[in-house]
Amino acid sequence: MLPVSVRKPLQKKIASVEHARELAIDVMFELQNHYGYLSDEAVAEAAGLLDMTPLEVDELATFYTFIYREPVGVYVIHVCDSVICWMDGYESVKAYLCRRLNIDVGQTTPDGLFTLLPVCCIGYCDRAPAMLVNRKVYGHLDGAKIDRIIENLVNEAVQADQ
Amino acid sequence: MNATPTRILLKNRRPERIATLDEYQAGGGYDGLGDILESRSPAVIQQMLLDAMLLGRGGAAFPTGRKMMTVAADAPFPRYLVCNADEMEPGTFKDRVLLHADPHMLIEGMILAGFAVQAAKGIIFIRPEYENAARILEREIRIAEAAGFLGDNILGSGYSLHIGVHRSGGRYICGEVTAQLNALMGRRPNPVQPPPYPTEKGLWGKPTVLQNVETLMCVPHIVRNGPDWFRELACTATGAGTKIYAVSGHVERPGCYELPMGTPLSTIIEEHAGGMRAGAKFKACLPGGASTCFLPAEHYHTPMDFEPLKQVGSRLGTGAIMVFDQQTCLLAVTLNLTEFFTRESCGWCTPCREGLPYIRDLLMRIENGEGEPDMLPMLDTMAQYLWNAYCAFAPGAMGPVQSLLKLFREEVADHIVRGGCPF
After folding, report:
1. pLDDT at residue number A1
2. Is pLDDT at B1 greater than 60 in this prediction?
3. Contact, A126 vs B99, CB < 8 A?
4. Which of A65, A83, A123 sits opposite B87 (nearest CB)?
5. Concatenated DSSP letters for A26-84?
6. In this structure, are A87 and A131 located in the same domain?
7. Domain check: are A48 and A98 in the same one?
8. What is the pTM of this model?
């Protein structure tokens, strides 16, 4: 069940627009933040809020890159594999991340912290090779920089736990 | 005619932060906005944009004034203005730079463009990768509202416009007009073939005008300084205004450079992007994003404007210039781009959904040394089929493929003869 603290603000926002479904993506993002990913339960909740069928919500959920229908880590790392990043070191960035996190692309670390995914051009071709962590960008990547980013995120997660 | 760098859209650009409302106003922004809204008619502004020869900067180059004129004078209300900030084509990052430079220039552009079609609501459709820009826009919209530039009865003019930010869930096809409107209505973002055109029946069946970020940011300058001034900014007779060229690839200083429309490619690379990287020699570029045709070295001095690029077999597109040096395998580049288009195809129509993986597979086999001589004519045939697709996505994807087969056929054939990539 969605807690009232999440449901109420969404209901208020939905009531303020003319067509509930115009907020479909915002609602999916909110529920994803709450559940960690867009679970079947979240799809059903979204459908109820938006006056849509679960199938209609799923039709959208499966379409978009940043809506996750499967569990993901606390930090989703999207490595850009489009042409400029690919020319400027995508393969080595990917290989470094796989080694560092000890997972393959498409997997999540056993501690549930990191998911590694490839992504299409993120619009940072002037800072290639680049990646996103939870939609925040990091460019001009190399091994040392990746190490620093991962360490900071691990520390951030430890602090959040305490 | 102008050959020196002219900063119009990026005049308030700062290294690490946006230009504030005060800074935008200090540069003449919002100056006399109330008078303009009160004293000029929407038709006059439309005509100014048409006379200025402002062509859409999102890739399609449709005349902005003419698009607005397709909204009939007696068209129903409410009308919508959508700002397309969903740039996602590989190599394209100009709108990101513009949004982070001067958000109020966009907001004022939307006010004037909205007024020109009497839109009541403006929506900025932004890709999720640009979350930072989305937050900046939301904040600056509130600041503009507080200053009276946005909202009900703007500066006492009687015109009202409300602007909201819509975050996308992230898919390339959402940049296509009709797909974007579906996305905004909470529907699966498949394109829709006109007619009716969105300017007649768009969002929720009401007239909707959709414009790119860069296009909208030109509007305040045209309205203040006039169409002649805008046309004279270009250094080609066919061009108008400045252009944000987003340069990436094998150059010393990749980045966004605002220059007179029609600045030669060689000038952009050598005088602004720092030249080719050490030891690198220009082989080819994609002059306007991933859905344009390769421009080989023989056209190195081509003016980067819509007309001259058409004449040499390519397109200006979004002005995203991806530069490749002589060490680059253009087959591998095309394979990467085709992988992008294959992944991003919305799957609605058969030529695109089935044709793109087929073409990717052929390119991959040739690149990996499994090529056969008959694969070249197969690629030609398949690429031609993709022009039967439902929207412009698949024909766009064929830009690099067909130009590779035309201009660098020997390089592709060499892969087959050698049984692998020669690079």
Report:
1. 84
2. no
3. no
4. A123
5. HHHHHHHHHHSS--HHHHHHHHHHHT--HHHHHHHHTT-TT--SS---SEEEEEE-SHH
6. yes
7. no
8. 0.97
The reply to whether A134 falls in a domain is: yes
Angle in degrees, CA A132, A137, A140, rounded to 5:
100
- The verdict on A52 and A84 lying in the same domain is no
Q: Are residues A153 and A79 in the same domain?
A: yes
What pLDDT digit, counting tens, does each position of A19-57 carry? 999 999 999 999 999 999 999 999 999 999 999 999 999
**Mind giving me the DSSP string for A88-114?**
TTHHHHHHHHHHHHT--TT-B-TTS-E
**CATH number (domain holding residue A97):** 3.40.30.10
Q: Searching chain A, which residue's CA lies closest to the CA of residue B181?
A: A22
Q: What is the ipTM score, two decimals?
A: 0.97
- Containing structural domain, residue A129: 75-161
CA distance B235 to chain A (A): 26
Number of domains in chain A: 2
Q: Are B336 and A83 in contact (CB under 8 A)?
A: yes
Judging contacts by C-beta atoms under 8 Å, the chain A residues touching residue B84 are none
Kindly report the CATH number that applies to the domain delimited by B330-418. 1.20.1440.230
pLDDT in tens, B174-202: 999 999 999 999 999 999 999 999 999 99
CATH of domain B242-325: 3.10.20.600
CATH of the domain spanning B21-232: 3.40.50.11540
pLDDT in the model for residue B367:
98
**CA closest to A121 among chain B residues:** B90
Q: What percent of chain B has pLDDT over 90?
A: 98
- Give Dmax (Cα) for chain A: 50
- Cβ(B165)–Cβ(B126) below 8 Å: yes
Query: Across the interface, do B88 and A120 touch by the CB < 8 Å criterion?
Result: yes
Three-state DSSP at B243 gives: strand
B326 class by beta-carbon count within 10 Å (0-12 exposed, 13-18 middle, 19+ buried): middle
Q: In chain A, which residue's Cα lies nearest the Cα of B90? A: A121
The residue extents of the domains of chain B are: 21-232, 242-325, 330-418
Comparing B378 with B2, the larger pLDDT belongs to B378
CB contact under 8 A, B336 and A50: no
Check whether residue A102 and residue A155 sit in a common domain: yes
Do residues A18 and A80 both lie within one domain? no
Q: Looking at the structure, do residues A143 and A96 belong to the same domain, yes or no?
A: yes
Same domain membership, residue A14 and residue A82 = no
The predicted pLDDT at position A161 comes to: 84
Residue B106 has pLDDT above 80, yes or no: yes
